[in-house]
Amino acid sequence: MKISYNWLKDFIQIDKTPEELALILTDVGLEVEHLELVQAIPGGLEGLVIGHVKSCAPHPNADRLRVTTVDVGGEELLHIVCGAPNVAEGQKVVVATVGTIVYPLEGESFKINKSKIRGEVSEGMICAEDEIGLGQSHDGIMVLDVDAPVGALAKEYFEVKDDYCFEIGLTPNRADAASHLGVARDVAAYLRADVKIPDVTAFVAGDGLTIPVEVEDAGLCPRYSSLTISGVEVKPSPDWLVEKLAAIGVRPINNIVDVTNYVLHALGQPMHAFDADKIVGGKVVVKRVSEGTPFRTLDGVERKLSSEDLMICNAEEPMCIAGVFGGEGSGVSEGTTKIFLESAYFIPVTVRKSSKRHGLKTDSSFRFERGTDPNMTVIALKWAALLIQELAGGAVSSAVLDVYPVKMEPFAITVHYDRVTSIIGKEIDPAEIKAIIEALDIKVLKEQDDALSIEVPPYRVDVTREIDVIEEILRIYGYNNVEIKTQIKASLTTSPKPDKEVLNNSIADLLIANGFNEIMCNSLTKLAYVDESTAVRIINPLSSDLDTMRQSLLFSGLEAISYNQKRRNINLKFFEFGKTYFANENGYEEQQRVSLFLVGNRHAEQWNNADAAVSFYDIKGVVDAILKRLGISNLQVEEVDSDHLVYGLAYVRGAKRLVSFGAVATGPKDKTDVSGEVFYADFDWAMILKAISKNKITYQEVSKFPTVRRDLSLLIESSVSFADLKAIAQKTERKLLKQVNVFDVYMGEKLPANKKSYALSFILEDDEKTLTDKQIDAVMQKLILNFEKQAGAEIRK
Length: 797
Description:
This protein is an alpha+beta fold. Helix content is 25%, strand content 27%. It contains 19 helices and 40 strands.
């Protein structure tokens, strides 16, 4: 949401700089995300001064140029060569001095330099109005009134006022602050200042054209206020109104529509102007229409209405989607002379649903769907009518029709002083609490020794309970004014085992130390990425790309890889702690996962380091390192059969798969526009935590005796895996065999068909004594025998 600094001063007297005010707004809960200087004229006329042409003579070397001397209030006259046909001695003119950057209406900006033009020195430029953004004319230079002060700054002479725009990250609960008046209220509460509400005492009702209003669904439209204005002239808005709207990024349309936008952003009350002559049957009906009723909106799109949409209708057809968007056939146009002006309060949920249903997000719907002030409709209506009369002529031709059958009452709340102290953590003087409450436009009904009985106005839709009022007191009192105690009383508690956060940080540190970057992806994804039979769908998705809860971390990670690849960042190591979601017969299931991604080269390009692409063994090494860090061992190895992986392995314990990893298949990569080979690992983090919880910390004394290594080369069937051989070895020798590793694999023409060669290493150790050759040979013979018998291996000599 954008707020203008100058516009804010229409509601409250401020002696704070924009920077100081930005800090105040942030302190009271209206976080200023960006502060921007807004210039009504590009460049703000900086460097331009008022000059007096003292002499003007023909250029000796050019027929169409003049050589002038100009007084700009300095010690010496400036020599300026000018090509304008209307330059003459005695004129008061606008001069761009040397060093000034000029911003013309068309073309690029340029800097004024001291130069020679056809042999004559030129120390500036006498400006035309289009060259400095003050008008469209380029017939000649601007000639000012004779009383224009020489040497005065052009920005002061033309009263050019810079503005500042605050970009406020408005939270959904603060509907009351969605306007300049709402922001002014918070600033006033903080500074203990007064807020100025627009004066509408000059409003005079008429009796020439009355358009009756029927509200058929008061449950969705509790209040509807309206009037008519006749004899208006639709034309462009004056500069002051255009500048106000432009400061917050609103495009001016015409004087009628601009007034409704002005009132909306000033008071937070959305309004709509209808062409009164286009209201068929001469009456307005607020109701719901039949399902599928066609309706063409102001953007020229024909939409099918829902029976749940609240509509502003004439006697025959709908004219406007209530609180959201107007219709093409009833809007104000250049030929409009009579208008019907509405100012209403709609129930937020109906506007929110209609806005979502039709994909229409407007300034009106933004405010209506959060909750507007039901007591502001008539004030806004009268103010808008006065502004329209001022800018478009005409006269109010009816009384204010205010359909308000059931008044919306304020919220009655009791605030206890001890509760305030307990929540805030500091005892605040009751007089200060009362002052803050009253400064927030909250009425104090009754004072008691230990509490206040108050009434909160209905526009504060987020303040309905005592705890809400305490939050209001705290944000105005100031979070920074609540001291942090030097001593904190605490009791010791046992933490869960394992501590999930400590564990996550430990693994994150391990991965980051190995060159990984953590990613945090959206849990919403495309339906095309999931199994529809177990998909968790979003009822009101933001878009078709965010309509389903993800069932895997794979696709969101691949999208991150694709984003980087398209920006030439191709060597990537990512990890993510995230959740996946599934629908089942019992409702929904949420799973905690951890994913790893490797793509590109193992190392960045260097003169002394040859490029080497990451491989399956890189991802396996990282997975093994994580499991080792977690103290998880004695896992079975399985090959992975998955649509998402071309090949890969899984580590399992019993029937539970703890992690699977491998090379990502072509299908997922094509869906996410990823190129190259991608290696992916997926941890079931809940199973990991469960496995760790059963770990027991044991200590084993470091052996005093040396280890022994022996190697074997085996010729085996292609179907036999290393895991099979390792299992045979560990079963054969349980005490002395400490490690089994494969250090070479060969498959080629020199071997028989369907055969491969494995070179294995065996680490032997006795914790109690040094191994003898006899013991070592006995173990190796048993290994050879079992490999031959159980795996059909042939020992290669």
